[in-house]
Amino acid sequence: MIYVLSGQDDFSIAQALENIKKELGDTVSLTMSTTMLDGQQLTLEELKTVCETIPFMTGKRLIIVEGLLGRFESGTRSRRQTKTAKKSKKQEEAEVFADYLAGGIPETTILVFVEGIISGDNPILKSLAGKATIRSFALPRDAKLREWVQKTVKDKGGEISPRAVHLLARLVGSNLWILTSEIEKLLLYTNGRKIEEDDIQAIVGYNQQATVFNMVDAILEFKAEQAEKMLEYLFKSGIAPVYLLFMIARQVQWIVRVKELSRKKITNREMQGKLGMSSEWVLKKTLDQASRYSLPRLKTVYRKLLDTDISIKTGKMDAELALNILIAELSRQSINNPVRTARIWR
């Protein structure tokens, strides 16, 4: 039996692989008859050897090959070869593997190909049509992501309100590994009661907000490399670019408002209430930033944020690319040449 598990959602791919293992029976005994192979380096002879080896103490042998199909996607060719030679070599290699797989593998062998995103015209994938179980796993988004959150909480014995589902999906995004971890922390925190929005803010929002604070610091201090690394971390965490843009803009707005409210000499508790901040920690960090950055610099940043927001909403630029360009521009911009923004800051 041959399986192809592919796509961006490596969490669901891992789950599908675990389900295949469970279907084969005793997972402890199966471990002795399981082989992992690197598809980028694999030769046909190596594949044939493991596929045709008799299982040890089990009825089946499980072989997991990572990245073999991806090896034959476009753009993986050697730079040292001519274009014609590169193409013919890849074709020959793909045909050799495809011919062997098309001929069938022993009934005692379960062969699983684990891949990233692969195209429909992948030569090995095409040769396996009708001969293998092929499953593609795209990252869940919007309604499907919210359904996943609701189901996962329920499967783990918990309950979550619809508004909390929306907030959790918006804060974390489509990274199901991180979502699962956050759900488990929330279930421990709520200890049997329904998960609500306040719980999301308390448990999930803190780490992201801390990173956004540090990224805003790096932007305002012209630390380009540091700001870009933090942006990359937040993207990898699955945060949607548009929501991240909102978080940065909100922090800059808070800094400006804190500077204004500080002149009125009101208490920190009153200030926190007026700004609608979720914790004293957020206010403390914002007060620290407000004391260190000039209003002209903050105006420059906010103007750029506004321009980026318009570019994304009008479809002029991809959201993730726009945010990367924004951070690069802001963290390298000359502080002596602020943009005039009188029409925004009244």
Q: What is the helix/strand order?
A: EHHEHEHEHEHHHHHHHHHHH
Number of strands: 5
Q: Give me the side-by-side strand order of the main sheet.
A: 2-3-4-1-5
The structural class is: alpha/beta
How much helix is in the residues? 55-70%
Describe this structure in words.
The protein has 346 residues and is α/β, with parallel strands linked by helices. The chain folds into three domains: 2-136, Rossmann fold, CATH 3.40.50; 142-203, Orthogonal Bundle (Helicase, Ruva Protein, domain 3), CATH 1.10.8; 212-330, Zinc Finger, Delta Prime, domain 3 (Up-down Bundle). Helix content is 59%, strand content 8%. It has 16 helices and five strands. It has helices at 10-23, 27-31, 44-51, 83-102, 123-127, 142-155, 162-172, 176-190, 197-203, 205-220, 224-236, 241-263, 268-275, 280-292, 295-313, 319-330; strands at 2-6, 34-38, 61-66, 109-114, 133-136. It has a five-stranded parallel beta sheet with strand order 2-3-4-1-5, sandwiched between helices. It is elongated, with a radius of gyration of 26 Å.
